Amino acid sequence: MSRPERSHEIWDPGLQSERTRLAWVRTAVMLSTGGIAATGLVLRHGLPPVALAAAAGAFALATLAGAVLLTRTGVRFRRVQEALHGGRPIDSRPDALLAWIGTLCAIAGAVAFVLASAVVLVLSP
């Protein structure tokens, strides 16, 4: 079975799919770097073990989600180009779901960090 010819032509003169690819890269990089920085902050803050595990774990999951999104960038772009040139629908639901999960993990980590820090401040003499 032969593979279909890949077209390397630009799909549209406005480069919308290329701009969308850059937006996915920005999202993935922000999740990854933000998760790494937040995990480092949590580890140096001296939180109780349970709060430390919750906040650092949530930030680590956000970092992982960003890293997976970043590694999928090339595959996603190729699929979008092939779908546009082939007249097929574009399905980016798995990547959108992963981005949402990463964002929600970052929010959960931030909430756990703020609440644990507040408890530590209130209970400290």
pLDDT < 50 runs, ≥5 residues: none
Number of alpha- plus pi-helical segments:
4
Helix content: over 70%
Q: How far apart are the first and last residues' alpha carbons, in Å?
A: 74 Å
Biggest β-sheet: count, sense, barrel?
Answer: none
Coarse structural class? mainly alpha
Strand content: under 5%
Mean pLDDT: 85
Radius of gyration: 20 Å
Could you say which overall geometry the principal axes of the C-alpha atoms support?
Answer: elongated
* β-strand number: 0
The SSE string, one letter per element, is HHHH
What can you tell me about this protein's structure?
The protein has helices at residues 16-45, 49-71, 73-86, 93-123. The protein has 125 residues and is an all-alpha fold. Helix 1 runs antiparallel to helix 3 and helix 1 (16-45) packs parallel to helix 4. 22% of the residues are buried. The model has no long low-confidence stretch (mean pLDDT 85).
Topology:
Blueprint (H helix, E strand, L loop, with lengths): L15 H30 L3 H23 L1 H14 L6 H31 L2
What's the quick description here?
The model has no long low-confidence stretch (mean pLDDT 85). With 125 residues, the protein is mainly alpha-helical.
Which characteristics define this entry?
single chain; 125 residues; elongated; mainly alpha
